[in-house]
Design goal:
The complex is a heterotrimer.
Chain A (H helix, E strand, L loop, with lengths): L1 H21 L3 H26 L4 H25 L11
Chain B lengths: L1 H28 L3 H27 L3 H30 L14
Helix pairs in contact in B: 1-2, 2-3
Chain C lengths: L1 H21 L3 H21 L3 H23 L14 H18 L16 H12 L5 H9 L1 H22 L3 H17 L9 H23 L8 H19 L1 H7 L2 H24 L14 H32 L5
Helix pairs in contact in C: 1-2, 2-3, 3-10, 3-13, 6-7, 6-13, 7-12, 7-13, 9-10, 10-11, 10-13, 12-13
Chain lengths: 91, 106, 333
């Protein structure tokens, strides 16, 4: 059954990849990359159980953090053009 | 009892993988960006939660189980915030959702 | 079964690499490079190299993507298309590639137990490491003790890279203030909308960033028992600071951690590492021979590994944060 779960997650990753390559707008691509990251987390978790090495879960935890930070960074860049903008109204 | 847990986690893993695949199909086939976010949201919440709960049932109450609970909590917290931020950035930059055409009279 | 996963991941990797070369939109290229790093980390995981996968995920998918984006803020967003083929370059690539592939035909098969790397050094480490050092994670024991001098060199390389970035890119105070003037332009471009909408992100980040730091501390000190160690923990710490900068702005982040403090920390980590080596010299052993640090050999090893991992972690965190501050401080001017 881990095999079936892994195949499902791999298929989802492939579909997200296709959207990342196709996506007409830039936000489609950001969405696809975010989804790819969370699927990687699931893949690592299932892989850890499949190979009997639960140390992989530390890896999955790191990916959750990195995926989130990467998505926010991409959004800041696309929306504001640089990374130093604070988002506060300046007056 | 063990057999029950085994088969329940089997079922949950399969359902989780199925919902992930459905969401993946949705992100390809849905017409515009805002509806694709719904598809991605399905994979991030329903698919991930079912998959991880299935794994938690397998692991039981141990360090592995607690780490899986933490992964689930982090995912459930960060995915909605990321989705909200992406949608808001798209809306603020002027991306319009694809609405149904209004019926024109006569 | 694991063969199937390997083949699938490698096929994805080839697809993504092809897409990276063919896409002209630089932003899509950066996003695809992030996916490439995630795939590499997954492949490392299937190869049982968890520490490497950890570092690849944190550095490749996190920091590298952020730095690429900060660089793209300084340049155009589209690559110019090439309409002519450069035949000399294609021939040179083909010849070199074939020579390399021909060279690999002589190497032992993948995972062959008779390969030379599995005959001499690796079994020696595997046999004597638990008794001599007593640290369950053998990667840490090799990295920190048996090859500790190499790791000192690597930390010095990271330090040098930070120095180079600072020398080339850092502006003075007056240049930094100019960016504050650029901010209203960004607002006017977007129609003057304020970002009070970012409240959800702000509140969530206030809750989430301490958890990131806590996780970084866990990875730092748990590196003896599971995957982790100084490099990975440093990158996670830097990611926490980067998230703070992204959500609350560069000026506030500079107030939280002044750049002078960061530069001092960059030097302090390396000094801690080298200082441990000098301490072992003073206590009567050789350079970086941690046995000399305590009365019992394994205690000395544990103490030595603790200090040098701390040094590596501090340096890496400070270097990554400094590089990010320097890149982000350029902005569009």
């Amino acid at each position: 059954m881990f095999v079936a779960a892994m195949i499902g997650v791999l298929i989802t990753m492939l579909l997200a990849l296709v959207r990342a390559v196709l996506g007409p707008t830039v936000y489609d691509r950001i969405l696809a990359v975010n989804m790819f990251g969370t699927k990687t987390v699931l893949l690592i978790a299932v892989l850890g159980f499949l190979t009997g090495r639960p140390e992989f879960l530390d890896l999955a935890l790191v990916y959750v953090l990195i995926n989130f930070i990467g998505t926010i960074a991409i959004l800041k860049f696309v929306h504001y053009g640089d990374m130093s903008h604070s988002g506060q109204e300046t007056s | 009892m063990d057999i029950l847990i085994y088969y329940t986690s089997w079922l949950l893993l399969l359902c989780g993988a199925f919902f992930c695949a459905v969401g993946g199909l949705g992100i390809l086939r849905l017409p515009d960006f805002y509806s694709r976010q719904h598809a991605a949201g399905i994979t991030d919440t329903l698919g991930a939660a079912l998959l991880l709960i299935g794994l938690i049932l397998q692991a039981g109450l141990s360090l592995v189980g607690i780490k899986l609970v933490m992964i689930l909590l982090f995912l459930l917290f960060t995915s909605p915030v990321a989705t909200h931020t992406i949608a808001q950035a798209a809306l603020q930059s002027g991306l319009k959702p694809k609405l149904a055409e209004k019926e024109r009279d006569g | 079964m694991s063969n199937f996963v390997d083949i699938a991941l490698l096929a994805f990797l080839a697809l993504v690499a092809l897409a990276v070369t063919r896409t002209l939109n630089l932003f899509a290229t950066v996003a695809l490079t992030g996916i490439y790093s995630l795939l590499m980390a997954s492949i490392f995981t299937t190869l049982d190299a968890v520490d490497v996968a950890f570092t690849e995920a944190a550095v490749g998918a996190g920091i590298s993507t952020v730095l690429f984006l900060a660089t793209m803020a300084l340049t155009t967003s589209h690559e110019k298309p090439h309409h002519h083929h450069n035949w000399a370059a294609i021939m040179a690539t083909l010849i070199t590639g074939s020579a390399l592939v021909y060279g690999t035909l002589d190497m032992p098969h993948f995972g062959d137990p008779q390969a030379p790397i599995h005959q001499h050094v690796a079994p020696h480490y595997i046999e004597i490491s638990p008794n001599e050092i007593g640290v369950p994670n053998m990667v840490t024991s090799v990295l920190a003790t048996y090859r500790g001098y190499d790791t000192l060199g690597e930390t010095a390389v990271i330090f040098t890279a930070c120095m180079a970035v600072l020398l080339l890119l850092q502006r003075d105070r007056r240049g930094g203030n100019r960016n504050v003037m650029a901010v209203p332009d960004a607002d006017q471009r977007r129609g003057g909308q304020s970002m009070q909408h970012a409240m959800i992100l702000r509140v969530f980040s206030k809750f989430f960033i301490p958890l990131i730091f806590l996780f970084g501390l866990y990875v730092q000190f748990h590196g003896d028992y599971g995957p982790g160690g100084g490099f990975q923990a440093g990158v996670i710490f830097a990611s926490g600071f980067i998230l703070y900068t992204l959500v609350f702005g560069l000026e506030k982040a500079r107030q939280v951690i002044p750049p002078r403090t960061l530069q001092a920390l960059v030097a302090f980590g390396l000094l801690l590492y080298a200082g441990t080596g000098i301490a072992t010299l003073v206590m009567g052993g050789q350079f970086l021979e941690y046995k000399a640090l305590a009365h019992e050999a394994t205690h000395g090893e544990h103490l030595g590994i603790l200090f040098i991992e701390l040094g590596v972690g501090i340096t890496v965190a400070a270097v990554m944060t400094t590089i990010f501050f320097t890149f982000a401080g350029r902005g569009r001017s």
